[in-house]
Design brief:
The protein is of the alpha+beta class and 112 residues long. The chain has helices spanning 13-17, 42-48, and strands at 25-29, 32-36, 55-56, 63-64, 77-80, 83-87, 98-100. 11% of the residues lie in helices and 23% in strands. 22% of the residues are buried. The protein binds FE2/S2 (inorganic) cluster.
């Protein structure tokens, strides 16, 4: 027997949960505008904008973004409003935040 397909108005996580986060706002990533929602982490806003990496490793300069998403791995470090080593998965996006790619340890550019 075929199961009836359940349809919802909007099949997104917010739609399925019935969330109403309020009006969005803008942050920037490397100078490009990125939309964010109230309560959304910087990592989530970047993911929603199809940005998957925003840091390079100290040794080999390999790209990194969010891995654990819960503040444990430190892969998501970014420079936010000029402050390096901010965990993007834990930091709520705020209107006007300027997020930039962090290279190396974030203090003096790429480590050689
Ligand atoms: S993704 Fe692991 S600490 Fe942010």
């Amino acid at each position: 027997m075929r199961r009836p397909r359940i349809r919802t108005a909007v099949r997104t996580p917010a739609g399925l949960a019935g969330a109403d986060p309020g009006p969005g706002f803008e942050i920037t990533f490397d100078g490009r505008p990125v939309r964010a929602l109230p309560g959304q982490s910087i990592a989530a806003a970047l993911w929603a904008a199809s940005v998957l990496t925003w840091r390079t490793t100290r040794g080999a300069g390999r790209p990194r973004g969010a891995f654990c998403g819960i503040g444990s791995c430190f892969d998501c470090l970014a420079t936010v409003n000029g402050l390096p080593n901010r965990r993007a998965c834990l930091l709520p996006a705020r209107p006007g935040d300027a997020v930039t790619t962090q290279e190396g340890d974030g203090h003096a550019g790429p480590v050689r």
